[in-house]
């Protein structure tokens, strides 16, 4: 026991230096006026709690020390006092009212999402976020990029472990941005501590919230509502940039989109499809069907050796494009481009023990989508 | 005549049948307590798996899908299998002894309430071995994760919940009927011991909210198997409806799990301060106010769900109000200790720790009530820290205190004080090492219910895990001490505690199989 305590003590001393030096044992102050207000409320109520605790426990430990039988204390026999009982009902009430007023003001401000400059629709999917810039024709998914090897402790973890994505949500500073939250499947919650926004994304309903970021930077958060197997693996990354950088980024996105449409027309070779397909598979399918294609039966079937994957391509295309109603297998035509679907299907048909030798082209996929 | 008196004073039947057929409140109380202890260890093993996985960042021991099953089952088993049955067990033993009744009013119902439980939990635990695994949607089982997206075992989960609900409702009815009808003559309501009062109020809460739980799981069942759309937006339903109905049950539920502990502490503090309870009447009114308020605060669990502004404000204010009666209770306990003549045997130690640590949990609850700040706290480890502070050093310490306090009466032997104290001190260290750092990681941004976490949370998580292993291992001491006491402890006197008061101390130790066959005179409370 003594050794254990000593171990704990040494551990605490060694680590407390770097723990306390870091920012990470209190709520971040954040980079919006709302987050700063909330931080203020949090610290106020915290100090109130500390004060109450000091008084209450002070009296208690004083009694424990002085009024013990071993010190010869004689028990008094009083068992009530109306006056003190009224006083200690009133004082907390006053404290609570004093606390409720600033809290109410902050809340009213947080609920005022009118007159926004930019509107963004955020949709939760099992297990990624989709961002749509309303009125800009820009939309994309944002998916965890931490390699599986880091999660499985095979390689060293990078500093942004589990808090990194392929496409961050890019936002300009000093603009009022309104978010509209919804979900494609189960309930998720979009949370970025530095913005002090946490809002549930609920299938079939739309929630609102807003922010105005004061400072350029990258702000990281996570899904906060249990949403199934990979709930811990759907981070949020917001990149706040100046307004001119934001405009440039918008332009870039639009050009990239044109390039992508053009690429759908070109001839794709087996090698190109396999390389693209591997990336698409890793990002979108491996969560359920696993990187090795073995799935997690019975809920998530194996693709390695699957009759559908090794069988007729039309059926394979059908399940990937249209999904399977009432199961976790989604319709991917709303989430992936024709090129990506073609690539991933080609990849699945020619990976692991599957050796069909088939090439599925973007044109094949487009034909199925167009016929829907 | 003689024959009759003899059968009236028969002892327990022999063998296994004694336990299966018994209608004796003491036997049933013992069974509830033993059952609860077993569940405590099963739920604790699951906590062990969780904390082992979270010892370091990365996935080491279990896959995420199994991790989710562990968090879900840990919560369900601790709430419905460990804490609630323990308090029912205490009520079974103590309510009749404290009000001078020969038994519970409805002894056969009592037997049935208990015997449903092992089957309910066997069914719940069996889901771990089913295709697709056990429930994995959290103990709050939010739709549609628990309906459209649930593993097939969800149907068994629903059935198990129904059985637990029936058991609880019958138990509650029994307690109310007993307290209203079987008090010894001369014991007014306002003379009842506080433990009896808190259980009376708890029993009303149970009757009010267990049917709501039954309703919500039934709606799930309909959605899953019979094509309704209560919680499915595509069919015109609303997933948020689930949360409203669930929390209308689950908020009073948290008081169900702590009010009886308030009662226990209100018995023990005066006993070891050798001084009457301060503010008896205000204690009763405070308990009743907490119970009533608990019905109008449920949506404080849903501040981020998109409630309208008016709703947020209403639930923020009503939640803050609960602090007042809760404060009154704490102040009363401390005033009871003030100017007392205190000694610090194990029950007293646990009761004092209860007051301090429960208050810490209450204060973090006050922080959570501040709706704007809750947008940052909600669904993080800060919430996990909060409710574990009120449930572990709250309810569970209350149960420990009660067991140490009344065990000499139950089995006639005295527990080992030194080992009790060791159990106490190791538990205190373990509990705080486990749950205090959770406040920090939560504030720093760690969501709850994740199997793996970002690197900045690593240090505190390791401390938490070490604390949890210590706390878990310490409980073996408790089991050893209890078994040792029952089998070969030193003989206990009729009233082992100098300052204890109440009818239970007027019967011999151990309490005979039948007590108060003729009503005793109500002593001063
Ligand atoms: Cu999510």
Structure commentary:
The complex is a heterodimer of chains A (372) and B (525). Chain A has ten helices and ten strands. Chain A has 372 residues and is α+β, with helices and mostly antiparallel strands. Chain A folds into three domains: 76 residues, Helix Hairpins, CATH 1.10.287; 144 residues, Immunoglobulin-like (Sandwich); 104 residues, Cytochrome Bc1 Complex, Chain D, domain 2. A five-stranded mixed sheet of chain A has the order 3-2-1-5-8. Chain B has 525 residues and is mostly helical. Chain B has one domain: Cytochrome C Oxidase, Chain A (Up-down Bundle), CATH 1.20.210. A two-stranded antiparallel ribbon of chain B has the order 1-2. The longest helix of chain B is centred in the first third of the chain and has 36 residues. The N terminus of chain B is likely disordered. The interface between A and B is large, with 108 and 104 residues. Copper (II) ion binds next to loops of chain A.
Outline:
The complex is a heterodimer of chains A (372) and B (525). Chain A has helices spanning 2-21, 33-66, 82-110, 148-151, 243-265, 270-289, 307-310, 313-322, 338-349, 362-370, and strands at residues 118-125, 128-133, 138-142, 169-172, 177-183, 188-192, 197-201, 207-211, 217-223, 235-241.
């Amino acid at each position: 026991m003594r050794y254990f305590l000593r171990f704990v003590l040494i551990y605490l001393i060694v680590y407390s230096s770097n723990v306390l030096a870091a920012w990470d044992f209190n709520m971040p102050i954040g980079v919006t006026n709302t987050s700063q207000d909330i931080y203020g409320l949090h610290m106020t109520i915290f100090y109130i709690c500390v004060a109450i605790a000091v008084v209450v426990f002070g009296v208690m430990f004083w009694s424990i020390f002085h009024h013990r039988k071993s010190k010869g204390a004689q028990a008094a026999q009083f068992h009530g006092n109306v006056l003190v009982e009224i006083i200690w009902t009133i004082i907390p009430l006053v404290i609570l009212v004093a606390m409720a007023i600033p809290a109410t003001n902050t809340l009213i401000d947080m609920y005022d999402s009118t007159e926004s400059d930019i509107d963004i629709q955020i949709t939760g999917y099992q297990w990624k976020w989709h961002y749509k810039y309303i009125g800009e024709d820009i939309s994309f998914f944002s998916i965890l990029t931490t390699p599986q090897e880091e999660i499985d402790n095979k390689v060293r973890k990078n500093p942004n472990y589990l808090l990194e994505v392929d496409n961050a949500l890019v936002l300009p500073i000093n603009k009022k941005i309104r978010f509209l939250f919804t979900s494609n499947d189960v309930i998720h919650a979009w949370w970025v501590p530095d913005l002090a926004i946490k809002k549930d994304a609920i299938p079939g309903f739309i929630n609102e919230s807003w922010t105005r970021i004061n400072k350029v930077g990258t702000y990281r958060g996570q899904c906060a509502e249990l949403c199934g197997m990979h709930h811990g693996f759907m981070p949020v990354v917001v990149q706040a940039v100046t307004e001119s950088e934001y405009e440039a980024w918008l332009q870039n996105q639009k050009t990239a989109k044109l390039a992508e449409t053009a690429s759908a027309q070109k001839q794709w070779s087996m090698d190109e499809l396999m390389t693209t397909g591997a990336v698409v598979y890793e990002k979108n399918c491996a969560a359920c069907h696993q990187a090795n294609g073995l799935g997690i039966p019975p809920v998530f079937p194996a693709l390695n050796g699957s009759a559908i994957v090794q069988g007729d391509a039309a059926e394979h295309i059908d399940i990937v494009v249209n999904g399977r109603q009432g199961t976790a297998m989604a319709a991917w035509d709303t989430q992936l481009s024709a090129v990506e679907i073609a690539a991933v299907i080609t990849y699945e048909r020619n990976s692991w023990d599957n050796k069909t030798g088939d090439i599925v082209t973007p044109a094949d996929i487009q034909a199925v989508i167009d016929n829907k | 005549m003689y024959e009759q008196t003899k059968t009236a004073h028969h002892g327990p039947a022999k063998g296994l049948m004694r336990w299966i057929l018994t209608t004796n409140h003491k036997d049933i109380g013992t069974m509830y307590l033993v059952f609860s202890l077993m569940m405590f260890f099963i739920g604790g093993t699951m906590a062990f798996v969780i904390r082992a996985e979270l010892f370091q960042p990365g996935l080491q021991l279990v896959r995420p899908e199994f991790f989710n099953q562990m968090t879900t089952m840990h919560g369900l088993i601790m709430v419905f299998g460990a804490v609630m049955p323990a308090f029912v067990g205490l009520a079974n033993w103590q309510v009749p002894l404290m009000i001078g009744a020969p038994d519970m009013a409805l002894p056969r119902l009592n037997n049935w309430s208990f015997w449903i439980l092992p089957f309910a939990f066997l069914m719940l635990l069996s889901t771990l071995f089913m295709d697709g695994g056990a429930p994995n949607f959290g103990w709050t089982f939010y739709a549609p994760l628990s309906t459209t997206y649930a593993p097939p075992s969800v149907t068994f989960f629903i059935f198990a919940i129904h059985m637990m609900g029936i058991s609880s409702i019958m138990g509650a009815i029994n307690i109310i009927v007993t307290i209203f009808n079987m008090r010894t003559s001369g014991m007014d309501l306002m003379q009842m011991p506080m433990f009896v009062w808190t259980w009376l109020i708890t029993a009303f809460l149970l009757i009010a909210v267990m049917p709501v739980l039954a309703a919500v799981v039934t709606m799930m069942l309909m959605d899953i198997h019979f094509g309704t759309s209560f919680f499915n937006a595509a069919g015109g339903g609303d997933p948020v409806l689930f949360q409203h109905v669930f929390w209308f049950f689950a908020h009073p539920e948290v008081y169900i799990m702590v009010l009886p502990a308030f009662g226990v502490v209100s018995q023990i503090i005066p006993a070891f301060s050798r001084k009457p309870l301060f503010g008896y009447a205000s204690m009763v009114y405070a308990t009743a106010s907490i119970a009533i308020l608990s019905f109008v605060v449920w949506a404080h669990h849903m501040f981020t769900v998109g409630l309208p502004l008016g709703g947020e404000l209403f639930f923020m204010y009503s939640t803050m109000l609960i602090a007042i009666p809760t404060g009154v209770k704490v102040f009363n306990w401390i005033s009871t200790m003030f100017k007392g003549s205190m000694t610090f045997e194990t029950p007293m130690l646990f009761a004092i720790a209860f007051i301090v640590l429960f208050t810490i949990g209450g204060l973090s609850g006050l922080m959570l009530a501040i709706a704007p700040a809750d947008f940052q706290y909600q669904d993080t480890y800060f919430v996990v820290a909060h409710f574990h502070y009120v449930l572990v050093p709250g309810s569970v310490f209350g149960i420990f205190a009660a067991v140490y306090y009344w065990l000499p009466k139950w089995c006639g032997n005295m527990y080992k004080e030194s080992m009790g104290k060791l159990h106490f001190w190791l538990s205190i260290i373990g509990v705080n090492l486990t749950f205090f750092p959770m406040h920090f990681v939560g504030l720093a941004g760690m969501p709850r219910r994740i199997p793996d976490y970002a690197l900045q949370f690593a240090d505190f998580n390791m401390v938490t895990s070490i604390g949890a292993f210590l706390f878990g291992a310490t409980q073996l001491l408790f089991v050893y001490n209890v078994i040792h006491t029952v089998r070969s402890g030193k003989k206990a006197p009729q009233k082992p505690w100098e300052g204890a008061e109440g009818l239970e101390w007027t019967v011999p130790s151990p309490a005979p199989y039948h007590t108060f066959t003729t009503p005793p005179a109500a002593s001063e409370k």
